[in-house]
Design brief:
Immunoglobulin-like, six-stranded mixed beta sheet, five-stranded mixed beta sheet, elongated
C-alpha cells in the first residue's frame, strides 16, 4: 500500500513538472526551470522511502531536452556623454601678476629732465617666495636714467602683493617714451606676468615741451612792510627759442601774475614775517614749465589810531562816555587792544575789524584829554591818538 502511494506521488510530481515545463507564456529557459524541480522530486522520494523503512538510492534524472532556443536579442549600446576636460591649473615657481600703476599712469605728461618715481603694484602668483635675492631689472626700451637692476626691499610670499618703485628721470627732448622692466630670480632667470610669465611691465610717459629756466632777478623793496607793494622781476629762457605765456609769483598767501614778455608783476604782502617768493612759469605748447624761489622779508607795518567819537561831549561827573576808535594799517585789519586813558575810570577796547568802543567815566568837572593807545600785533606796530573832552558841573534840580 505504501509503495502504491509513493508511486502516485512520483507520478503526480512528474505531471506537475511536465505541466510547468510546457505551460507559461513566452519561451522559458527549460533547464533553469526544471533543475530545481528534479531536485525537489528526488528529495521527496528519498523521504518517503525512509518512512517505509526502505533504503533507496535515487538516481539523478537526465536533464530535459530543451524545447527551443530563444532568438538572439540585439542589445542597445548607450554611450555616456563626454565629460569636458578640466584644465589643470598652471603652477610656476616664479610668476607675477600686474595689479595697478600706483604712480605715473600710462601717458603721464612730465617736463624734460624731471626726476620722478614709478611704482607698480604686483602680486606673487607663483609658488616661490620673493626675497631680497630677487631683483627688479631693466628689460628694454628707454631706461629713463634708471638702474640696470635693484634688489627687492621686502619678502613677498605667494599670493601677497607688493609695491615696487624705481627712481627715474624724464628725457630732455619732448615726445613719448616707454621702458620695460621685469623681475629676476636668484638664478638670473627673468620673469613677469601673463600666461607664460614672460610679459614685462612698463613705465610710459610723455615729455612735454622743451626745458626752460625761470629766474627771479629782483624783489623791491626788500625788506618791505605789511601792505607795501613789492615789484618782482623775473625772466624765462630756453635754449630752443623764446617761451610765451604767463608767470605767477606767490608768497604763499597772495600772488600776482605777469606775462613772460612783461617780466614783472607787483605783489603786496598782507602779513609780516620771513617769506619765500616763488615764480612759476606754466609752460606753453612748445616749452615746459619751470620755477624759481627767492627769500623776502616783510616787516610790521605802520598803523593809525583815531578816536572817532566821545559821546556825550560835554558830559557831567559820573556820566558814562562812549569812546570809539579805529585802527588802520596798510594791509589786513589790525587786531589786538586799545587802552583808553585820561578819565577817572579808564576802559579797554578789543578790536574787531580794526574798530571798537568802550565806556569811560569822569568824576570831576573840567577840561579833559582822552588818550587811545594801540599796542600793536604780529603784523603792525603800535600807535595812539588823543581827544579833548569837557566835563561840566552837574546842576541840582
Amino acid at each position: 500500500m505504501l509503495i502504491r502511494k509513493n508511486s502516485f506521488v512520483v507520478l503526480s510530481l512528474t505531471a506537475i513538472i511536465v505541466t510547468s515545463a510546457c505551460g507559461g507564456r513566452g519561451t522559458p529557459d527549460v533547464a533553469a526551470t526544471l533543475a530545481p524541480m528534479y531536485t525537489a522530486a528526488a528529495q521527496t522520494l528519498q523521504a518517503l522511502a525512509s518512512q517505509a523503512g526502505m533504503t533507496a538510492t535515487p538516481s539523478p534524472l537526465p536533464p530535459p531536452t530543451p524545447t527551443g532556443i530563444p532568438p538572439t536579442q540585439t542589445l542597445a549600446v548607450v554611450i555616456p556623454p563626454s565629460v569636458p576636460n578640466t584644465p589643470v591649473p598652471v603652477t610656476r615657481c616664479d610668476w607675477a601678476f600686474f595689479v595697478v600703476d600706483v604712480s605715473v599712469p600710462d601717458g603721464s605728461p612730465i617736463a624734460p629732465s624731471t626726476a620722478f618715481t614709478k611704482t607698480w603694484r604686483l602680486r606673487n602668483n607663483g609658488t616661490c617666495t620673493w626675497t631680497s635675492a630677487y631683483q627688479l631689472v631693466f628689460y628694454n626700451g628707454n631706461a629713463m636714467g634708471g638702474p640696470a637692476s635693484q634688489p627687492l626691499t621686502s619678502t613677498v610670499a605667494p599670493g601677497q602683493m607688493v609695491d615696487i618703485s624705481v627712481s627715474l628721470t624724464s628725457p630732455i627732448l619732448a615726445g613719448p617714451y616707454r621702458g620695460y622692466w621685469m623681475l629676476q630670480n636668484p638664478s638670473g632667470a627673468r620673469f613677469g606676468f601673463g600666461a607664460q610669465a614672460n610679459t614685462a611691465f612698463w613705465v610710459d610717459i610723455k615729455v612735454v615741451g622743451n626745458p626752460t629756466t625761470t629766474t627771479i632777478t629782483a624783489d623791491t623793496p626788500d625788506p618791505s612792510v605789511v601792505g607795501q607793494a613789492v615789484v618782482v622781476t623775473y625772466t624765462v629762457t630756453s635754449t630752443g627759442g623764446t617761451p610765451t605765456g604767463n608767470v605767477t609769483v606767490s608768497d604763499g598767501t597772495i600772488n600776482c601774475t605777469g606775462t613772460v614778455a612783461a617780466g614783472t608783476c607787483t605783489l603786496t604782502p598782507t602779513t609780516a614775517g620771513a617769506k619765500t617768493l616763488t615764480a612759476t612759469y606754466a609752460g606753453d605748447a612748445n616749452y615746459a614749465g619751470s620755477s624759481d624761489t627767492e627769500s623776502h622779508t616783510v616787516s610790521q607795518g605802520p598803523t593809525t589810531t583815531t578816536i572817532t567819537a566821545d559821546a556825550p561831549d560835554p558830559s557831567t561827573p559820573g556820566q558814562s562816555v562812549a569812546v570809539s576808535v579805529t585802527v588802520s594799517g596798510t594791509g589786513i585789519s589790525p587786531t589786538g587792544t586799545v587802552i583808553i586813558t585820561g578819565a577817572d575810570t579808564n576802559c579797554t577796547i578789543t578790536l574787531s575789524g580794526g574798530i571798537g568802543s568802550c565806556n569811560a567815566v569822569f568824576t570831576t568837572a573840567g577840561a579833559k584829554t582822552l588818550t587811545a593807545t594801540y599796542s600793536g600785533d604780529g603784523n603792525y606796530m603800535s600807535s595812539s591818538d588823543t581827544e579833548s573832552h569837557t566835563v561840566n558841573t552837574a546842576y541840582p534840580f
